[in-house]
Predict the structure.
Amino acid sequence: MKILLIGPPGGGKGTQAKVLIEKYKIPQISTGDMLREHVKKLTPLGQKAKNYMENGELVPDSLILDMMELRLNDKDCINGYILDGFPRTIPQAEGLDFLLEKLNHNLDNVIIIDVPDDRIVQRMSGRRVHLDSGRVYHILFNPPKKENIDDFTGEKLSIRKDDEEGTVRKRLDIYHNTTKPLIKFYDKKNILNSINGDDEIENVSKEIAKILNNA
Ligand code: AP5
């Protein structure tokens, strides 16, 4: 099962990926989480990526593709994976095609999670994250059991630096101009499905399950 989730920043890709991990026992590959880990560990890649990320800009394609080539060669990818936040440009999608061919992998499903911009801005202001695991909460829509504490580790939750409204609006512009052309790219391959992401988390999960069960 090789699934690609595409959607605006804050569209719920990470939230839904966590549901799919449980269901299919395959890894979530989130370029955002991987980059944040590099930034935290002060790796050479992290040092290059930090400013782009904090400003809400995309990290250059070549850095992302090198990072993904290494990741897709990991053993845990053999039975499938959920790509979350990659590719998000046409050159990245072309690079992914090249990598998939080399690995003899096929994408089974590309799912677009559609959410209006104003709803995104509202969601991001309430997002809280557990940085080490990538677990995502929302103070109203998906609160942790104990305020500001991760359900599993008991550690404190954080607010992402790029969740400030101005940065979110910039990320949305980039999504509309640079990432949305991927819809046409994958539509031509006949593996594209679009769902309404402006609904309760459980209902969005049900829509995704319907698509995957019919695949
Ligand atoms: P990344 O971490 O991938 O950010 P993003 O794509 O902008 O997506 P988010 O993680 O912000 O949101 P999400 O869709 O996962 O939503 P979530 O589930 O958290 O990337 C960060 C940065 O890294 C980029 O800006 C860029 O600089 C760089 N980068 C990463 N990948 C790159 C690439 N391939 N190329 C170049 N640069 C790259 O949900 C959001 C909130 O809403 C949460 O609080 C959640 O609880 C809540 N929520 C979720 N679903 C619902 C619902 N249905 N109803 C109500 N609330 C909901």
